Structures are given as C-alpha cells and as structure tokens.
Recover the amino acids of this structure.
C-alpha cells in the first residue's frame, strides 16, 4: 500500500465520521502543513493556528471527498487557499502584519521547535538569525504563486505536476514561476551567497 | 564531443537549471548538462550562482509541530461542532432582524395611536359646545377608527 493509498483509505474513513482516522491523518501531515504555512507567513504560532483551520476545513469537506486525485494535492490546495485568504485578510487590516511578534504559548503548550541551526557560538547565532530573517522576508515578499511554487518545490520536494494541480496551472507555468522566483530571491539575498 | 554536447548551447543552458536541480533530466541530458559545465566557465559560474541562491534559501530552519497539536485540533473541532444553534451567526442575525421588525412595527402603531388621540383631543376641544350633534359624533368615531354608523 502506497502512502497515498493509506491517505485515501483514512480519508474515506473520515468521510464516514471516523475521528481516529482524522487524528491519524493530522499526525501524518501536520509537519508538512505547518511547515508550508510557516514558510509563507513566518510566524510559528500563527502557522499552527492556520494549520488547525486547514485540518478542520478538511474534516468539514470530507462528506464531499472523492479520491480522484492524490490526497496531498488536495491537502496542499486547501493549505494554499488558507494562506492566500490570510494574506488578503491581513491586507484589509493594515494594522496587522506578519512582522508582528506573537505571544508565547499558554501554560502547558510547549513552543514550536525550530531545528537545523548551523550556528554554534553566539556571534554565529546572531548572523544566522539575521540571515534567516532576510530569507523569510524575501520569501514572504514573493508574489503569491511564486511563493507557493518555491515552498512546495524547494522545501517540500513536490514534483512540478503536483504543484501545477495545486496552483491550477501548467507544468511549464510552474517552471516559469520558479525561474522568476529565483531571479527575485537572487536580488533580495545579494550578499548572502 | 558527442552529439548531445554539441546541441547544448549556452543560451539554452540556463533553461535546464531547474530540471537539473530537481533531477528531471534523463540520463543522456544530465550527462550533456554536466559535460557542458565542464567545458564552459561562464555557464559554470551561472550554475554555481543559481545553486548558491537555493542553498541559502534552503537554510531556513525546519519546524516541528508543538506537542499535542493533533489533540488540540480535535478539541477545537468539537468546540465548533458543539456550538448551540443560537450561537450560530445566522440565527443571531435572524434574531436581531426580527427584533428590529417588531420594534419598528410597535413604534409605528404607538405613533399612530398618539396621533389619533391628539386628533380626537383637538377636534373635541374645537367642538366642545356641539358634542351631542350627530355630525360631530360621526366625525369623532371616524377619528377613533370606529365604523361609520
């Protein structure tokens, strides 16, 4: 049984109201969904909040679910739409922005863990932190489609065909998006490489 | 130099960057790509710059879900599902609109009653000495909304 077959089987059980199957789906895909959202909006707490809404949306859509496409394609499409709606909501409330820091978690809720730091001493940590901020800002400032293409391809390793389905465009359009994103990031990150 | 390498021109070379990085070139094309890199300093520099951008971008740290994320999501799902019907926005708006309609209708009826009373009072005052006249009685009944005799 392929991972996609497992996802489809679980989703069909969710469609029948099986919450254990829903929990298992969340645990299988929570990292990917939170990661995609985090890379798009840059805030760990907001990313988890939005990810919860994605999964709840998934549950509510279960009644209409038909296994005609790969499950992750559907999941990433919901995630992409959630990010897009969040950006639009933020643009209507100018006072809010993705640059604002959020409060730490409530008591009993451990914070989100960031892994893979390359820094070892304090000065390196500061430099690394500044670099991460520049990268994060550069990605956030990309146009919506380019940003999604970069995140799904470069970070999640999705094939062009699947990204094309998520973005509802052609494979050649995905390649074009990545090419343009790379040129933009090259300008924004000048001096970092 | 084989035929594939001959066809690999510098102006088309950069179009292959994404495919090469993502492993989408078949063995023959990948071999031609690497051979061109070996023989062209300009393209080699462009390829290194291209890879450098993505290497920097990929250094963004990964993120792990906080402990209990799945459990909290299920809890939130139950909270939304358990919300009583009177808490639903549609029901709330319907209630507000209904109250507005009731208040408006009541207000209009009260205003008309006051207006009627004022009209009756004014007419009575004007015809104080002729209240027993038939015409005056009919007029007062009309103002009060009573059917005409």
């Amino acid at each position: 049984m392929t991972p996609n077959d497992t996802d489809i089987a679980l989703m069909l059980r969710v469609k029948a109201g099986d919450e254990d199957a829903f929990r298992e789906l969340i645990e299988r895909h929570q990292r990917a969904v939170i990661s995609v959202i985090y890379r798009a909006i840059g805030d760990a707490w907001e990313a988890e909040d939005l990810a919860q809404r994605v999964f709840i949306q998934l549950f509510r859509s279960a009644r209409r679910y038909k296994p005609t496409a790969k499950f992750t394609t559907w999941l990433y499409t919901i995630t992409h739409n959630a990010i897009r709606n969040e950006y639009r909501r933020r643009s209507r409330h100018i006072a809010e922005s993705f640059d604002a820091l959020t409060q730490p978690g409530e008591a009993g809720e451990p914070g989100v863990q960031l892994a893979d730091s390359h820094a070892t001493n304090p000065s390196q940590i500061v430099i690394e932190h500044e670099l991460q901020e520049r990268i994060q800002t550069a990605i956030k400032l990309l146009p919506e489609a380019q940003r999604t293409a970069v995140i799904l391809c470069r970070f999640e390793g999705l094939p062009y065909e699947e990204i094309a389905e998520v973005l509802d465009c052609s494979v050649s359009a995905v390649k074009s998006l990545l090419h343009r994103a790379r040129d933009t990031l090259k300008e924004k990150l000048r001096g970092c490489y | 130099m084989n035929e594939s390498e001959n066809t690999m021109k510098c102006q088309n070379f950069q179009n292959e960057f994404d495919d090469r990085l993502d492993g989408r070139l078949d063995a023959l094309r990948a071999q031609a790509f690497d051979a061109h890199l070996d023989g062209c300093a300009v393209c080699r520099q462009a390829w290194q710059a291209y890879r450098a951008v993505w290497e920097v971008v990929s250094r963004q740290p990964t993120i792990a879900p906080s402990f209990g994320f799945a459990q909290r999501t299920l809890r939130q799902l139950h909270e939304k599902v358990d919300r009583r019907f009177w808490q639903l926005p549609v029901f709330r708006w319907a209630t507000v609109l209904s109250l507005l309609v009731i208040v408006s209708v009541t207000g209009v009826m009260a205003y008309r009653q006051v207006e009627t009373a004022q009209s009756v009072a004014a007419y009575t005052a004007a015809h104080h000495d002729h209240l027993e006249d038939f015409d005056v009685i009919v007029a007062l009944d009309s103002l009060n909304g009573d059917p005409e005799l």
Q: What stands out?
A: Residues 70 and 127 of chain B are 83 Å apart (CA to CA).
